[in-house]
UniProtKB/TrEMBL annotation:
It comes from Actinoplanes cyaneus. This is Class II glutamine amidotransferase. The keyword Transmembrane does not apply. SUPFAM superfamilies: N-terminal nucleophile aminohydrolases (Ntn hydrolases) (SSF56235). Pfam families: GATase_4 (PF13230). InterPro entries: EgtC-like, Gamma-glu_amide_hydrolase, GATase_2_dom, Ntn_hydrolases_N. Keywords: Glutamine amidotransferase.
Length: 278
């Protein structure tokens, strides 16, 4: 499958999460501890919102393995952002090409996915026909992840993100039933509009891929008063990750099965996720 992270909070350099932690995202591209595959070498990408232009996310995507991408290393050590999504890819059958690498971008939105649609080739035509005709020309690659993004956009991601993703999941399961495909959907998803970040964990079989969120910064600062890295972060700082970036006790909380979360100014949200039948 894949690994991804979403960061929101005090502006930091990208390499502080992509490279520096003991179990950084780049380390996970070679040695994933929680993934289906231990190696995720079929592409890498990062999308970030510059502090001076938060409505226009920048995007880097490469087809090589993350651990060997010199351009990514240069960007990561010289780019600072208050909000970014990063992804390392393990293909589930579609081509290794730039247009199939995450994050996917549409206007101010970014989207990353870990998981798959079972027997996607069998379901692909019906799912594509459900995409808004105005959005269809912006599909550039051949992955199930990008189709999921465009279905969510079709169902109102920009106005009601949780309901849109629930409708997307419900449509996939309904189409799969007509084709006799059992337990079709496996997903953890991260998406953002540059202001808030949404994370989703769901699978048709009820045994979803791993997903974690960071403990509130204020609580960690009280727990570790002598940790200088924690004390330079704002109380609004939060991370969502496929697997923890370190082993600091109390720093990571598992996202419950069939759940969604929202990182936003003020109180964050955690709620139940339920696919909506079309």
């Amino acid at each position: 499958m894949c690994r991804w992270l979403a960061y929101s909070g005090t502006p930091i350099r990208l390499d502080e999460l992509l490279y520096q932690p003991r179990f950084s995202l780049i380390d996970q591209s070679m040695h994933s501890r929680y993934g289906v595959e231990t190696t995720n070498g079929d592409g890498v990408g990062v999308g970030w919102y510059p502090a001076d232009s938060p409505a226009e996310p920048a995007l880097f995507r490469g087809v090589g393995p993350a651990w060997n991408d010199a351009n990514l290393r240069e960007i990561a050590r010289s780019t600072t952002s208050p909000l970014f999504l990063a992804h390392i890819r393990a293909s589930t059958g579609t081509a290794v090409q730039q247009t199939n690498c995450h994050p996917f971008r549409h206007e101010s939105w970014l989207w990353v996915h870990n998981g798959s649609i079972r027997e996607f080739a069998k379901l692909r035509r019906d799912l594509l026909l459900a995409v808004d005709p105005a959005l269809f020309p912006t599909i550039e690659g051949s992955t199930d992840s990008e189709v999921m993004f465009h279905l969510a956009l079709t169902f109102g991601l920009r106005d009601r993100p949780v309901a849109a993703v629930e409708r997307m999941a419900g449509l996939i399961e309904a189409v799969a039933r007509t084709h006799g495909v059992p337990a079709p959907l496996q997903m953890t998803i991260g998406t953002t509009d540059g202001d808030r970040v949404w994370g989703f964990r769901y699978s048709s079989e009820g045994h979803s891929r791993s997903l974690y969120y960071s403990t509130e910064t204020a609580a960690l600062q009280r727990l570790y008063p002598d940790n200088p890295q924690l004390h330079r972060l704002s109380e609004e700082t939060r991370l969502v990750v496929s697997e923890p970036l370190g082993e600091l006790p109390g720093a990571w909380q598992p996202v419950p099965e069939s759940s969604y979360g929202v990182i936003q100014k003020g109180a964050d949200e955690l709620g139940h996720f339920e696919p909506a039948a079309p």
